[in-house]
Amino acid sequence: MNNLPIIYADIERASQRLNGVAYRTPVLTCNLVDQQTRARVFFKCENFQRAGAFKFRGAYNAIACLDESEKSRGVVAFSSGNHAQAIALAGQLLNVSTTIVMPTDAPAIKLANTRKYGGNVILYDRHKEDREAIANKLVNEKGLTLIPPYDHAQVIAGQATAAKELIEEVGSLDYLFVCVGGGGLIAGSALAATHLSPGCTVIGVEPEEGNDVQQFLRTGKMVKIPSPNTIADGARTQQVGVLPSSILQALVKDIVTVSDDQLRAQMKFFAEHMKIVVEPTGCLAAAGVLNNILAIADTRVGVIISGGNVDMKFFSDILTETSAKEVAHVIN
């Protein structure tokens, strides 16, 4: 624990910076979920966060920690969408210029919102170009400060405040299920859970087609995979972040996976039974719980819903095309 890149005090300081800026998002429960899982399940709804996802917490905390010289030069980030929006909005609030490198196939709503918040968007082809190389070139040429989406201490500390709020509100947990992309959210969540709810088992959930973090955690070796083909665009990462990796090895029990069909069914379940809009990546942790991947009966379970930024046509297609059989499967 002493060798980890951030400590709980960093999370407390992030919480203070975010107080009155980030929303303290609601925690929802659902009788149907509790009946089907035979557990008490608490959903931390970061789909109601500013910019529509938990990413605002880390983005704001990271920019707020910059010195005045760094703020005056501006920041650069790379993201498929939620970190992009979060950086742009945080920069707007803190009067810091932002440039974001985004893939050409990013959801239209995420591109539009990033620009709406004042972000300067640079598009790239994720299959042919390296987003980190593009961002680092801007760092070298323009003196911008790079704020990556998950491999950054202050970003991780900010993301951790979602789990901190959840446990402070509902009390101790037996399990905490967290969506996994590059590892920032689950790393921060694991640190918060370990401090506030000792004995809580932290489980990450990735898409089946993008299980780089699962491979890393189970083998102890860094694995880089091809860009995953999954509807969970926020989890199309190819390799776990360096900073999150040490925290995951120390504090996370396991990473499990769910299919895209299970994510589609989970989106529809949330809309029909809990009346909330959740994007595919935001459904990862919940799909891990509701598909009975682990035995959780008679326990208290926390679930981080990471975001709700989804193109409305895609969302409409999910609602109309997902079969009743798939919806039934997600709760059996």
Write a structural description.
- The chain has 15 helices and 10 strands.
- The chain has 2 domains: 226 residues, Rossmann fold; 92 residues, Rossmann fold (3-Layer(aba) Sandwich), CATH 3.40.50.1100.
- Strand 7, helix 9 and strand 8 form a beta-alpha-beta unit.
- It has a 6-stranded mixed sheet, sandwiched between helices. It has a 4-stranded parallel sheet with strand order 5-4-3-6, with helices on both faces.
- The termini are far apart.
- Helix 3 packs across helix 8.
- The model has no long low-confidence stretch (mean pLDDT 93).
- The protein is α/β, with parallel strands linked by helices and 332 residues long.
In brief, what are we looking at here?
This protein is an alpha/beta fold and 332 residues long. It has helices at 8-18, 31-37, 55-64, 68-73, 82-94, 108-116, 131-142, 153-170, 184-196, 212-219, 242-251, 260-274, 284-290, 312-321, 324-330, and strands at residues 27-28, 40-45, 75-78, 98-103, 120-124, 145-146, 175-179, 201-207, 254-258, 300-305.
